[in-house]
């Protein structure tokens, strides 16, 4: 029995590693760019590695750099990170539905590895997922993220100054690159992003609210208003 | 090493880890009300909208840096380019623009 269990666990782990290889390759350019941008934002190599190793959330890390660059306070950056990453709560809840019962410490450990990408791969997998599979999947993605962040930082150190200056648009370009495919798919996304952009502009330019809180206010306001209208139109359709 | 940044990283790590961990460990079958599930699903798109505008227009004293960066990134992304290509395209466009101003 003991042998059978070990073989099952190691085969699940290997399956996870294989599924994670695709994510590891996909993370490479994003992590390299993160390392590069962390350098241009003024973080040290140790801070950059710590951020990738402890936070391990691409968009939040990019946003943290973006906010640090404009002098936003640490508390606001943590709040913005929380608002942005609370979506993992739903992914974790959804994953919980197809997760095999495992020791709670194992679930607590692999929960750290939940990202948009690892969640998508795990959620699309046929059947259930167990801790061994999630460890294999998570280690590949996490390893790629942390190692490539460090490489990006070190390589970025040698970039010419003029290129580093034009890199100031890079974070914004990345957000646009993330947003546009969603805009193409759903009209609702255009309204959400547009509303938040307008509210954020009013908050920062006219009301002089600090950038961090303006983002929180604009995001929540747009998300709630949109959901309220979605609910209204559903109610109308029901009548 | 800046200690404020270290504490910020630890804080970011905690607020990122807790939502990842809670449902898997604490809540077994509890679900949020549908309205708030919808709100939270809307948040990433709204956040991106707010992070791009108006910030991109202030990356340089010359507002055309922001406008050209926005347009080039948008066009590249619309044509289906991967995020890293979108970033490279806008950086290259601004590097070229910088040569002429």
UniProtKB/TrEMBL annotation, chain A:
InterPro entries: Brnchd-chn_aa_trnsp_permease (IPR011606). Pfam families: AzlC. GO terms for cellular component: plasma membrane. It comes from the Bacteria. It is found in: Cell membrane. The chain crosses the membrane at residues 20-38, 45-64, 70-90, 133-155, 167-183, 190-207, 213-230. Its main location: membrane. Keywords: Cell membrane, Membrane, Transmembrane, Transmembrane helix, Transport. It is a multi-pass membrane protein. The keyword Transmembrane applies. One of its GO terms (biological process) is L-valine transmembrane transport. Belongs to the AzlC family. This is 4-azaleucine resistance probable transporter AzlC. It comes from Parageobacillus thermantarcticus.
UniProtKB/TrEMBL annotation, chain B:
The keyword Transmembrane helix applies. The chain crosses the membrane at residues 6-27, 39-59, 71-100. InterPro entries: Brnchd-chn_aa_trnsp_AzlD. Pfam families: AzlD. This is Branched-chain amino acid transport protein. It comes from the Bacteria. Keywords: Membrane, Transmembrane, Transmembrane helix.
